[in-house]
Specification:
GO terms for molecular function: arginine-tRNA ligase activity; ATP binding. The longest helix is centred in the middle third of the chain and has 24 residues. Helix 2 crosses helix 4. The chain folds into three domains: about 130 residues, 2-Layer Sandwich (Gyrase A, domain 2); about 140 residues, 3-Layer(aba) Sandwich (Rossmann fold); about 200 residues, Orthogonal Bundle (Isoleucyl-tRNA Synthetase, Domain 1). The chain has about 625 residues and is an alpha/beta fold. The structure holds arginine (ARG).
Amino acid sequence: MSHPPVPSQHEFKGVPLLHKLPALPVVEGTDPARCPQDAFRLAIADQLAKILGVDAKDAFLAAAPGGREADFKVVLPRFRLPAKIDELKEKVTSAFEPNAYLERVTSNGPAVLFFVNNQTLVDLTLATVQDMTYGEGAAIVDGEKRPSYGSNLNGRGKRVLVEFSSPNIAKPFHAGHLRSTIIGAFIANLYEANGWEVKRLNYLGDWGKQFGLLALGWRRFGSEEELAKDAVQHLFDVYVQINKLAEGPEGEKIHDEARAFFKGMEDGVHENLVEWEKFRNMSIERYKQTYERLNIHFDVYTGESQVKKENLKRTMEQLRGADFVEREKNGALLIDLTKYKLEKTVIERVDGTPLYITRDIVEAQQRWEDFGGFDKMIYVVASQQNLHLAQFFKVLELMGFSWAQKEADALLHINFGMVLGMSTRKGTVVFLDHILDETKERMHEVMRKNEAKYAQLEDPEGTADIVGMTAVKIQDMAGKRINDYNFDWQRMFSFEGDTGPYLQYNHVRLCSMQRTNAQDGLVLPLEDLDISTMKTDLLLTPEALEIVWLLATWPDVVRTASRDHQASTIVTFCFKLTHAISSAWEKLIVKGQDRDVALTRLWLYRCAKDVLGSALRLLTITPLERM
Ligand code: ARG
């Protein structure tokens, strides 16, 4: 398991350098110890507060990235001060005092432009990366040190439940489930990096009449041997076969028997439940293998079957008495949500049985109780189910649960578009494992072509698998979630362009650089690096500054992603960083340089490697050291 960055739980006051720099105002929600950009923005806020008398927090928020023009810029009209903008500009530029954070100021239009002291930027950023990766600022989890640079404590004391993946037993694990799995696991990591306590839930489709059919199918077509080999595949095959049979002349009889079997399950008939549970457990074991391959895990395997009878009863009683629920003529229970533009939804069938939405309503309530409450509950489900999610969120709100009210802002549907054209060489089966196997094989073919490198790999199969998973994940997360995308075998595997293999290649290159130089006696210790020996004034070149600037923004990128819930925010950062590193490659040379020059540059590259590694791990990807 390769873990995402998490914040250090002990009080971390920041690197020693920070305390030698001018004091900064204290502003809620900022953390200059963990986030170097905050330090510079607070330095700007400090000056503006003193010169213009504005609130330091407002000024902090006003300090935006300056793009091509400057490091930061502040648009003055946003303060709504009772003075002419030109006068305010004049006031700021003339009263501005350069210090260790800020070098100079100019203006353009209604904006004041700030330029940071690059030496401080380099020193503070690299020292912070170093310390939060290997030193005092690193996190300790289960007695082990883990990188924490990029993480923050904004979510401290808050709990989030993230439900994702949620396949249906005996049915294919399709592209929609794959996206939910990839995006959901990322969202969970992201909340963890933002200081939240995270519970990862898998809500299986593991209840319903189809289990009656499956049980009948099992009797006719089941094989213990096949089940043990691959439960997910075998149960699907059995299910397909019995469905075929159920379409034929025996159909009616089969459906009646299936219904009876499921009724037995509902009534708690022991044998029926034992059989069903075997299918469920073996499917979960099989799913776990796939999740492991994807570097993903769950805290809880819940599912439609786990909705407790007594809870269902309690909720139905409450709903029956509610003024927003109607009984139809035929006896079904219905909620009319048309005034919220959410159509109508049936919550109890004519025969008194609950529906998919009914279970979701009860399950949500049950989770609230089982987990001792939550501050957020996130459902990572395809946008085809937008209406379903909106409906049951609305019902929970109408039922009066405090956590379901708009103000609580606790229920969140993270939706996403479709994957188009996902099929294997052999055909159109969309079994996830087939896709992943083929991904690995194709990646393996590509890697074999480079014989020299290939020969050095300890575990070529495992490596091919990881690069393959990276290819699939980056393709999935590179765009905005809501967009559909084409599953593109050709492009996904390319080592050029913005692909997963390209990112792994860059990480590997940075690792190999550390290795080969160590062989030449240029060793950078991890924990005991004496950064005062680093000649960071050598890093004031455009190429080095470009990298440092990106490293400094990383904690901000993590915060931004926690607001937009877009994995693409992180992926884009990875590509910017790798592009900056590629551009530096020929200018910031290590080989053949004086020892201190070489070591300082190696340090910069190592910090870049560490941050790239953290970004990949946040995306659930295991960064490779060789490939
Ligand atoms: N099993 C469902 C499906 O495959 C997805 C479950 C989504 N989550 C939920 N709480 N309804 O369509």
